[in-house]
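Query protein
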Amino acid sequence: MYFFLLSYFILGAGIKYIDDAFDEKTFSKIIAVVLTPLLGILGVYAMFIDPVSATILLAIIGGVLIKGKVDNYAFMGGASLVICLVLIARIDFLIIPLIILGSAAVLDEIGNDYIDKNKDSLNRDKLTYKFAVYFFGQRWIMKVLLLFLVLINIIPFYFFFAMILFDYAYQAVNLYSKIKQGKANTWTARKALAIVGYIFK
């Protein structure tokens, strides 16, 4: 259990670090390139030792591939490495949950893209806008369906917490990136800067 909690946290933070190293230029591309195969190996190992973990991580990979989010050479290399290792290792996964969670991952990406593209035209004072930003920003469709699979005893409960850690580590690095760009200056952002900055210094 503890391995998955830690590994999902590392994967979430590392993926966002690589993403913003190339897209936002806020982090070192050299470090990002070094991190890519390490994260790939960690992810494949987390898939190899547990079919449930394989199902969740394959759903995430499938969602970003379908939505074309693999858009730099580090991610392309990392995705290729993961796919090759998955095929070689003949990793087991749960077919029906993979379809459910993979579809949810695609819907999360669609919702996230919609909010990003239309945030200037939407009424930011409305509660529905704030809820949508949080819900899709934190990619809650997949987590809600994951929780459903937990409640019907298909997936162990700790994998839901692992996904929470994955997403919040991702968002913490995202916030740190925005701070470095000068796009965030609230007290919460400054606190996150101190914490995440210490980790990635």
